[in-house]
Design brief:
With 114 residues, this protein is α+β, with helices and mostly antiparallel strands. The protein is built from five helices and five strands; from the N terminus they run αβββααββαα. A hairpin with a 2-residue loop joins strand 4 and strand 5.
Amino acid sequence: MTNTNQPKNEWYFEDENDKELGIETQSYDNGNLVKRATLSDGRIAIVRELKGKDMKLVDKVSDGKKDEYLSALMHVATKIHDGDKETGITLEELDELKGKDHTKLKIMATTLNF
């Protein structure tokens, strides 16, 4: 559930669980949400709410394989910030993340998109 008392365009912890995990949330003026967390290697992962057209891409990437759906969702929704550089995250990179980083991305992606 979104905390509607939070100011727009500022990062905040949505609840105690997010605070413990280091997952921050930001609400844009248009009502869309994004979440961010620092990964073990110091890079910043930002996960966004997806739109219908993005969900079509998730379906295409997962190719109808139920066991690939969550990875496809994380792949489409996530950007990685490393200094001045912003990149997407590949399915292969998701597989190589430390478990705790993979879990953070999974929590952010599912919280925003389910």
